[in-house]
Design goal:
Blueprint: H1 3-18, E1 26-29, E2 32-39, E3 47-53, E4 56-63, E5 66-71, E6 85-95, E7 98-111, E8 118-120, E9 135-141, E10 144-151
Antiparallel strand pairs: 1-2, 2-10, 3-4, 4-5, 5-9, 6-7, 7-8, 9-10
This protein binds FE2/S2 (inorganic) cluster.
């Protein structure tokens, strides 16, 4: 790449980085872009809490090295999911007519505080068919958590 091409690329990057955001918190780093909701280290492992982004309340859950972001209003009747319970996904099957409980350590689920419906944080799917909580694409760059508000 020539020096002229390199300068053109630098100017393009500066224009992107300088683009104003509605809430002043949009950050662009490399190829990704999203709303900066805080430092990854500030989210306590295996805990949920809510953050406000552009007037909307989002739930955030860190699960080991991963982090999940979701709309905190339950799709059933609007309960605040962050006031619910976080746990590992459990499933029960019958093996030789004996019940067997399995624990999936890699799959966090949220239990709604009002009616205890269960939502998978990876997919948003409810254990009850036909309902899904809204989840958002999230990345961590330079230790910051960035959320894309488009559909996952
Ligand atoms: S409001 Fe969440 S399950 Fe009913």
């Amino acid at each position: 790449m020539s020096a002229v091409d390199s300068g053109a690329a630098d100017r393009t990057d500066q224009r992107r980085a300088a683009r104003p955001a509605r809430d002043g918190r949009v950050r662009e780093t490399g190829r990704s872009r999203g709303i900066d909701i805080g430092a990854f280290a500030d989210f306590e492992d295996r805990k949920m809490r809510s953050v406000e982004v552009g007037g909307m309340e989002l739930g955030v859950c860190r699960w080991g090295d991963e982090i999940f972001v979701f709309r905190t209003a339950c799709p059933h009747e609007g309960a605040p999911l962050c006031a619910g319970f976080l746990q590992k996904k459990l499933s029960a099957t019958l093996v030789d007519e004996e019940p067997r409980l399995e624990v999936d350590e890699e799959s966090p689920v949220v239990l709604c505080p009002w009616h205890r419906w269960e939502f998978d944080l990876r997919t948003g799917e409810a254990a009850w068919p036909g309902f899904k909580m809204r989840t958002y694409r999230v990345t961590v760059e330079d230790g910051r958590v960035l959320v894309s508000m488009g559909r996952k």
